């Protein structure tokens, strides 16, 4: 195989893989681990802290969240074997669904 080893030795060097992510329309070079983390959570879950650094967004506030709870009221629902998904009638001292907010 004449010339094979000469071709291998004279071939251009292999480029190192560059990992980039796009946060809010700006591309930045990161490590492979950081890119996999961004892919896992999604690019929209990150924001810029400084011109060269980004971090995950804080979790949304839970203020104003509405919950339904069962409370005793007159009149209210009576449940079959205590199952709130199976009402059997309305009587005094039964339960009703009330909306509570935090």
Strand content: 35-45%
Q: What composes the largest sheet?
A: 2 strands, antiparallel
Helix residue percentage: 10-25%
The best one-word shape is elongated
State the strand order across the main sheet.
1-2
> Could you tell me the radius of gyration in angstroms?
31 Å
* DSSP helical segment count: 2
Model regions low in confidence, pLDDT < 50 over at least 5 residues: none
How many angstroms does the end-to-end distance come to? 79 Å
Mean pLDDT across all residues, rounded?
A: 88
Give me the strand/helix succession: HEEHEEEEEE
Strands, count: 8
Tally of separate domains? 2
Q: Which structural class is indicated by helix and strand composition? A: alpha+beta
Brief digest:
The protein is 16% helix and 43% strand.
Question: Can you offer a commentary on this structure?
Answer:
The chain is of the alpha+beta class. The protein folds into two domains: 16-56, no CATH class; 66-101, no CATH class. It is built from two helices and eight strands. The strands form four sheets. The protein has a two-stranded antiparallel sheet with strand order 1-2. A two-stranded antiparallel ribbon has the order 3-4. Strands 5-8 form a two-stranded antiparallel ribbon. Strand 1 and strand 2 (26-30) form a beta hairpin. It is elongated and about 100 Å long. The termini are far apart.
Provide keyphrases for this structure:
102 residues; alpha+beta; two-stranded antiparallel sheet; 8 strands
Please describe the topology of this protein.
Layout: H1 4-9, E1 19-23, E2 26-30, H2 32-41, E3 46-50, E4 53-56, E5 66-73, E6 76-79, E7 87-91, E8 94-101
Antiparallel strand pairs: 1-2, 3-4, 5-8, 6-7
